[in-house]
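In this supplementary section we document a worked example of the pipeline. Step one takes a protein sequence of length 403 as its only input; no multiple sequence alignment statistics are reported here. Step two produces a three-dimensional model, which step three serialises into structure tokens for compact storage. The input and output of this example are shown verbatim.
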Amino acid sequence: MILEMKVPSPGESITEVEIATWLVEDGDYVEKDQAIAEVDSDKATLELPAEASGTITLKAEEGDAVAVGAVVCLIDTSAEKPEGGADVKESKKEDTPKTEAPKAKETEAKTYATGTASPAAKKILAEKDMDASSISGTGKDGRVTKDDAVNAVPSMGTPTGGSRGTSRSKMSMLRRKVAERLVEAKNTTAMLTTFNEVDMSPIFALRSEYKETFKAKHGVGLGFMSFFTLAVVRALKMYPAVNSMIDGKEMISYDFCDISIAVSGPKGLMVPVMRNVENLSFRGVESEVKRLAIRARDGQITVDEMTGGTFTISNGGVFGSMLSTPIINPPQSGILGMHNIVERPVAIDGKVEIRPIMYVALSYDHRIIDGKESVGFLVAVKEALENPIELLMDNDIKKALEL
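The serialised model returned by step three reads:
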């Protein structure tokens, strides 16, 4: 029996996918549920499992855009599993006729001819400190003529003798979609960025005292993301315009906080969403961040997990970024950028002290968020991070950390 495998729908509104990588070769025997391909949609990279066991016949090439519901391969379910499959593959490779050697000799001969030059041309090129091999000759068999040497223009750069090769590769569908969304955000929003700095000393002190107990109790670390996420939720409640977005001529405001977090996956940037974060504790946030980060790393993030979100947090600090202007994740209206923490001299009560400082940035859509609201929002985040015990823990550390 021949089974036609069709492209399943990765999610609503997705009409086509791209074959990123075939994990098997044409004619291979595959087992049911074995991953046979990685496919890119404009939102995620997913694995395509075999629907049955049998011999596979590929019907699409890597890089092909295939419509959802189209046949991408055939599986002959009546085929029996071969014995010693690895040995069969090796023997096939050994039986393949070696036809590349004559081509290599032919190329070698052409290269030699191209690098030759007439005596007059060599003299002119020597005066220009140029080599005949760097010029495409117009003479017979690629020979460099006197006219070629006269017209040759030396490179304006400093000769290094190093490699100057280039390569060209097709962007994945996911990367192309990210690029489109970034350009869309720049072109369709009135984006501005406001900055502030945060003294991380109070959070450092809390983590130093409680991180081991917290991890032993909950199985996750007490990181910076929980403090920042809960500080953002508090600020969103104070400034609801930041938790809104434009839909045509209307502004939609949300009474919940679905926070998108930018994480780096094997296929590039992904932005999974933590739902109803206003109901999460420190433990809840840290557990959800860990879960989503692992799924992104393993390429298991689904479209549904990246759909929605009312505000985004991006942590460029993990890569060493000191300061940046993050781009809004449309159709959202705001994104908070975290950066690296550096010890800096600051004035405290008229004295210079060394404190761990993080610069933070809020990019926002000025069409619905005024300067007063944007600055107020970022100040509210700063206040919560510099006074977490009172503003994020209600003066009860052990209860907040569920210890």
